[in-house]
Target: 4-hydroxy-tetrahydrodipicolinate synthase
Amino acid sequence: MPNASAYVPRGVIPAVLLPFDNDLTIDETSFRKHLRDISATPGISAITVNAHSTEVASCTSDEQRRVLDIAGDEVGERIPIVNGIWADGSLEAARIARMAGQSGASALLVFPPAPFALGQSPEMALAHFRRIADATDLPLIVFQYPLATGQGYPKDTLLRLCHEVPSICAIKDWIGNVPHHEWHIRTLQNLPRPVHVLTTHSSWLFSSLVLGCNGLLSGSGSVIPDLQAQLFKAVQTDNLAEARRLNDRIEPLARCFYAEPWANMHNRMKEALMLLGRLPRAVVRPPLVKLGSAEVARVRQALVESGLIDKMTNSTAA
Model:
C-alpha cells in the first residue's frame, strides 16, 4: 500500500464505477477487473471509490468497507486510493474516516453534509472538518459543490477551512462558475500551504484544465482514463494543438454523459462500458433505473463519434 502520509492528491484521478449483478448485489468479479483496467492506465495518479460514481448513496456501510477492501486488495499495492466520505452527520463522517484509514486508503474525499442544503455557517463547516481531521491523519479533499445547492462553501469559509484544518490538501471543484473556479485556482494553489484544485467540470474539462488546475477527479475517467491522462499531459506541457485534438474526441462523450438528468451520468457510463465489452451488464440500484433503448443508442453514437467504437463493425476501435 502506498504511504498515505506522503500522498498529495493531484494529477488524473478516475472515480471508478461499481458493477452490480442482476439481483443488485455487488458484482465483485467485474469490479476487480474494472479496477485493474483503470489502474493500468498510463498517466493516472490514483483512483477514487465510494463516491457518486460507485453509487455510494445506495451502499450500506458494510458495502462501502467491502468496496474499499476489494480496491486495496486488487490495486492498493500499485496506486493510491481515495475513499469518499458520504455522511449527513459529523460523527458518522469521522467513523468512515477511521475505517478508511484502517483499510488502507491514501486520502479522503469529503462530501458536504446534506443538512448544509438548508443553510450553513463557517462554524458548522469547520466543526465538521475538524471532527474528521481529528479521527485520521489522512489528507482531506474538500468536495466543493455549486453555491446554489447550499452545500458549496463560500470563499471566506473555504479559506478558513484551508487555513485552520492543515490536513486539507485539495478540493474537488464542482463550483460550476468559471470566474469562481478560476478564483479557486489562483487563490488556493498559491496559499503558503498550497491546496490543489482537482477539477470535476467534466462537461468542459479542456477549458477548466487550461485555467491551471493541478489535477482532475472525474467519474468519466471510468470510461476514458487514457484520454483524460493524455489531455492533462498535453495541457501541462502547453501542447494545445494536441489538447484540442483530444478534446474533440472527449466532447461527444461529455455531451452524452452529462446531459439532463445528471443523476443518470454514471448510468450512461455503465452502458458505455458494456458497449465497449468492459462490463457484462449495466445494472444500477434504485432509485436509478435502466436507460431506455433510445438513450442507450445515444451512448453508442457518442462512442462512435469519439472513435472508441467502429461505426460499421460495431467493434471497439484500436
Observations:
- The chain has eleven helices and eight strands.
- The first helix runs from residue 28 to 39.
